Amino acid sequence: MELYAAVRSKIEYLEPFVISECINDWKAMGWTHQQLAEIVKPTESNGSLRIRLGPKEHLRGKIIFENESKMAYISSLEQFFKWFSGEATMMANDQRIIDRGNHWGYFDYNYVFDIMNPENIADIDWRHLGLDADPVDSTIWIGTPGAHTPCHYDSYGYNVHAQLSGSKRWILFEPNENMKPIRVPYEESTVFRLVILPVKFSFLFSSY
């Protein structure tokens, strides 16, 4: 109960915080890459999984937004994992082979209800944090080293992230920082800022 109260208190004041070892009982913590490749299925709408691709080398003054990224469309996460380990190739939508040595790949912002069966979604349990959040509304993000999202802030409520494997680096700004939007038209929920901040991702879940 003390953990629940602490989480609610932090969320109420929109204060960033990290809690360690609080989801060890999640069944999802036992997922391996091999299991994920079986659990995650292509969406019914397009029959494929989308991987966003970008260069590891950052050019000064250049921000690569998601609509400017190269994309690869694959039938299974197994191909993504094999590309990362050097066992398979990855072809982008411009028909070019992507070199994993100087590119990152990002399976980002995928709602679990689109790509997982209900019995697998049940392996995610936000009640461990005292949150009344339905796991079906969670999103999954899997990235190779260097994968990142451009600097932004979300204009709705709060985000809760569960790191299942690997690591992620966050760069936060003070509340009084001038975070003027850069893209027009402005997105309703995510507001991007003209700041270049490479952030490494691995494997996490998010709930809103």
Short description:
The chain has one domain (1-56, 65-174, 195-206). The chain is 17% helix and 21% strand. It has helices at 2-12, 33-39, 77-85, 112-115, 118-121; strands spanning 49-55, 70-74, 103-111, 139-143, 152-154, 160-165, 190-192, 203-207.
- Main-sheet strand order equals 2-1-3-4-8-6
Overall outline: globular
Proportion in β-strands:
15-25%
Q: In terms of structural class, how would the helical and strand content be classed?
A: alpha+beta
Poorly predicted ranges (pLDDT <50, ≥5 residues)? 198-203
Number of strands: 8
Average pLDDT works out at 84
Biggest β-sheet description: 6 strands, antiparallel
The total count of helices amounts to: 5
Number of domains: 1
Give the termini distance in whole angstroms. 21 Å
H and E order: HHEEHEHHEEEEE
Q: Work out the radius of gyration.
A: 18 Å
Domain JmjC: 110-208
Subcellular location: Cytoplasm
Organism: Wuchereria bancrofti
Main location: cytoplasm
Q: Could you please describe the fold and organization of this structure?
A:
The protein has a six-stranded antiparallel beta sheet. Strands 5-7 form a two-stranded antiparallel sheet. Residues 198-203 have low confidence and may be disordered. It starts with a helix and ends with a strand. The protein has five helices and eight strands, in the order H-H-E-E-H-E-H-H-E-E-E-E-E. The protein has helices at 2-12, 33-39, 77-85, 112-115, 118-121; strands spanning 49-55, 70-74, 103-111, 139-143, 152-154, 160-165, 190-192, 203-207. It has one domain. It is an alpha+beta fold.
